[in-house]
Every structure is written in structure tokens, then in C-alpha cells.
Amino acid sequence: MKVDRERDALIAEKVMGELDKINEREYRLMIPSGVTLPHYSTQIADAWQVVEKLNLPFTLQKNKQFKGGHYASFIVDKRFEAAQADTAPLAICLAALKAVE
């Protein structure tokens, strides 16, 4: 299974609450409604669903530290949970996973 799809499944399970874990290496790629698992970590429209679901203070900006990078952060109980990645959807997903830990 591709890393992106494993991450999408992890987002669906941990953040969206829509996926049951089968075991540590394999996840179902269908959410209970029967709709195909969204591409949270690669498609910006799907990543915005993550932001909306968390309903926390959020920032997304282009990171000037490295070319083409993005920085996303959520504020959880007065602390920042942030991540940077090459793409905005990936940065959002990585920060969201930190926010729900």
C-alpha cells in the first residue's frame, strides 16, 4: 500500500473518525458509507475537510525557509501543533495528526 494512502487511512481513522483499523499494516480503504477514501494528503479539497472537522484555530502559509514548502499549524489547548511539507495538503495532514495525538 502506498504511503499516501496509508496516511489517508490514518487521517480517516484518527481525525475524521470514519475508519476502523484492521491491523498495524493494513487499513480498509472504504469509509463506512461505502464512499472511496478521500485523498486527504494529496488533494487540497479533501485536506480542507480535515481542517473543518478539527474546528481548531488554524494557519497555513507558504514557508519561505525552503522553496515550494508549506507550513500548517493548529492551536490545541494553547499549544501549536505544526508541520511543514512540500505540499499544502500534506502539511495540513501532518499537523492534524499531531493535533489529535
Would you kindly provide a written description of the structure presented here, covering whatever features stand out?
The protein has 101 residues and is an alpha+beta fold. The protein has helices spanning 3-14, 44-54, 88-100; strands at residues 58-63, 69-76, 79-85. The chain has one domain (3-100): Bacillus phage protein-like (Bacillus phage protein, 2-Layer Sandwich). The chain is built from three helices and three strands; from the N terminus they run H-H-E-E-E-H. The chain has a three-stranded antiparallel β-sheet with strand order 1-2-3, with helices on one face. The longest helix is centred in the last third of the chain and has 13 residues, at 88-100. The radius of gyration is 13 Å and the shape is globular. The mean pLDDT is 83.
Helices and strands: which structural class?
Answer: alpha+beta
State the order of secondary-structure elements, H for helix, E for strand.
HHEEEH
Helix content: 25-40%
Task: Please state the CA-atom Rg, rounded to the nearest Å.
Answer: 13 Å
CATH architecture: 2-Layer Sandwich
How far is the N terminus from the C terminus? 23 Å
How would you summarize this macromolecular structure in one to three sentences?
Helices cover 36% and strands 21% of the residues. It contains 3 helices and 3 strands.
